[in-house]
Amino acid sequence: MLAVLERGANLDLVRQRAAGPEGARRVEELFTSAERDVVHLVAQGCTNRAIARELYLSVRTVELRLTNVYRKARVRSGFELIRLLAEAGDEQTADAASRPA
After folding, report:
1. Half-sphere exposure of 11 (CA within 13 A, CB side)
2. Computed from CA positions of residues 75, 78, 83, 89, in that sequence, does the dihedral angle turn out positive or negative?
């Protein structure tokens, strides 16, 4: 039960960061451009191997970037990340996630 509450609190914290004092700051702005490239491919349903191939990276580099993304967004999986982005109003990534593969 505590883990569920902690995850909910983390989601609220990220939402607060996204809103920020200056208004409509997107959650995605927490990430570097390299991390955003990986996030967009995760949202499209790509595997780590497919992301590595698309971006000309090693699978390990993709894993490291996703680890950083998950840490910054305070989520544990690609599914949670996509849900968070959709809830925070990141329309571009949410749209990509909802399209059939």
Report:
1. 16
2. positive
Q: Both tokens of residue 65?
A: 């970037």
What's the whole-model pTM score?
Answer: 0.64
What domains can you pick out in the chain, each with its CATH number?
A: 2-98 (1.10.10.10)
| Cα–Cα distance measured from residue 28 to residue 93, given in angstroms and rounded to the nearest whole number | 9
Residue type, 51: I
Work out the burial of residue 75: count CB atoms within 10 Å of its CB; fewer than 13 is exposed, 13-18 middle, 19 or more buried. Answer: buried
Residue with tokens 């790509």: 46
In total, the chain counts a number of residues equal to: 101
pLDDT reported for residue 20: 45
Tokens of 41: 């491919």
